[in-house]
Design brief:
By secondary structure, the chain is of the alpha+beta class. It has one domain. The chain has 5 helices and 14 strands. The strands form 4 sheets. A 5-stranded antiparallel β-sheet has the order 3-4-5-13-10, with no helix packed on it. Strands 8-9-7-14 form a 4-stranded antiparallel β-sheet. It is globular, with a radius of gyration of 18 Å. The termini are far apart. The relative contact order is 0.20. This is Domain of unknown function at the cortex 1 domain-containing protein. InterPro entries: Duc1.
Length: 226
């Protein structure tokens, strides 16, 4: 019987299968990023048909699945350089009505750029900070203790320690616990360019889909510009 396999790793050629809802993280390290990833899927059955749900869904009852990532970029980048999305290794079968589907996707995610009709490697990418469902940021140093991951409770929005090229925090981000305000602000490329992320910036983030049709989005995998 067909089943869903979840793979994670530092590159498309170096992947390992991970277990959803296990409460355990998979470590990923490259020359650009180091961190951990965990996946939760509601009512997910293992290879023997047993369903193991995660405590995550007790707090996020409207969520159907989530990808959680905690880590840091090893060199400084502006938020405009960091993307999140899909890159496929083969051409996609384009269904009838694809243009309407694509229009809806771009309505839901105005920053998305794509070439899903490519005959080689179709892709669809968006700026990470304009598309993440929840984004928590902490400034760290060598003595700072990294919090447990996956976290005991779902990630809550917190942009209070973000660094900006301009000294003052923009008025649009005064509410540091508002994910919608952060996503809206980061739809502007100039705004993203003014946010800096580097080795001392610990990011804990969640990309999730909900049962509400108005906020559902497509599944994606993370990557970086360039």
């Amino acid at each position: 019987m067909p089943r869903l396999r979840i793979l994670a790793g530092p590159s498309p050629t170096d992947l390992n299968e991970i277990r959803a809802n296990s409460g355990q993280a998979t470590h990923i390290a490259t020359d650009a990023f180091e961190g951990d990833v965990a996946v939760c899927i509601k009512n997910f059955a293992d290879t023997e048909g047993n369903v193991h749900d995660s405590a995550y869904f007790k707090d996020r009852t409207d969520v159907t699945w989530s990808i959680q990532v905690q880590g840091r970029f090893l060199q400084e980048h502006s938020a405009d350089e960091i993307l999140f999305g899909n890159v496929f290794d083969r051409a996609l079968p384009i269904p009838w009505g694809f243009s309407a589907i694509l229009s809806f996707m771009q309505y839901m995610d105005p920053c998305m750029e794509q070439d899903l009709q490519s005959k080689e490697k179709p892709w669809a990418l968006s700026p990470l900070m304009s598309t993440m469902t929840y984004f928590a940021h902490t400034r760290t140093d060598g003595a700072h203790q990294v919090p447990p991951f996956p976290p005991p409770k779902p990630v809550q929005e917190d942009t209070s320690q973000l660094r900006f090229k301009a000294r003052d925090r923009p008025p649009e981000l005064q509410d540091v616990h508002n994910p919608s305000a952060r996503r809206t602000y980061c739809q502007n490329s100039e705004h993203r360019t003014g946010i800096i992320l580097g080795p001392n910036d610990l990011i804990t983030q969640t990309f999730a889909t909900t049962t509400s049709p108005s906020v559902q989005q497509a599944s994606r995998c993370s990557c970086q510009r360039g």
